[in-house]
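User: Last request for today: this protein with 2-phosphoglycolic acid, please.
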Amino acid sequence: MKKLIVANWKLNPESAKAAESLARLEDRSGVVICPPTIYLAPLKKVLKRAKLGAQDAFWIEEGPYTGAVSPSQLVDLGVKYVIIGHSERRYLLQESDEVINQKVETALKAGLQVILCIGEDLESHEKGSDQTRLFIVDQLGRALKNVKSKYFKNIVIAYEPVWAISTSNSGLEDAPDESKKIISLIKTFLKKRYLMHNPRVMYGGSVNAENFDEYLADDLIDGVLVGSASLNPREFNKIQT
Ligand code: PGA
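Assistant: Here's the final one, the structure of the complex with 2-phosphoglycolic acid:
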């Protein structure tokens, strides 16, 4: 399966006009563009080759939930992917593993491809690789609890060590060899515990035009989730599979 390049624009850019021009410049096949929710509809008209992704979706399809956007509403708009469990939502908005698990289930039922973010925090990272492994496996197990195997093909895991995300200000950089070890572990876990035949795992965390190749060069990593570098189209377009 082809590797994915996902642009996570987060809360950028500042206007619909700016979002449309950025999208035109990044519109290529193999790419998923995840703009803020408010730009999904205008970008649907702009994008010809890239797929559209949302940065989040609610865990219930309809009802009295002020401000929420449901997975089916996203599907209706032509959205194909949704990011769930991003660390910025886990930590800034206190999204729990239970909420993330429900979001995963609801999004899959609606027909979305789920990009499920997992990754250890700085504290676990500093305690060493055993603690990192425990953290990851536990987080994955909670996010996938009771998810039916018929949906597994529509899930891609994004391994994003929280401390390696550009905005985490940890000052630390991930070493690709370290992430590869964790990604192998995630794949083995998914194969053994969930009997997934061909689990897909991407990497995210300060990926840019200089370092993407270290992650994508071999067959192990199935794509990259790109935050800040995706706001600069010249840099983003250098990231190729
Ligand atoms: P970054 O963000 O590339 O700016 O580190 C990645 C992410 O948060 O998904």
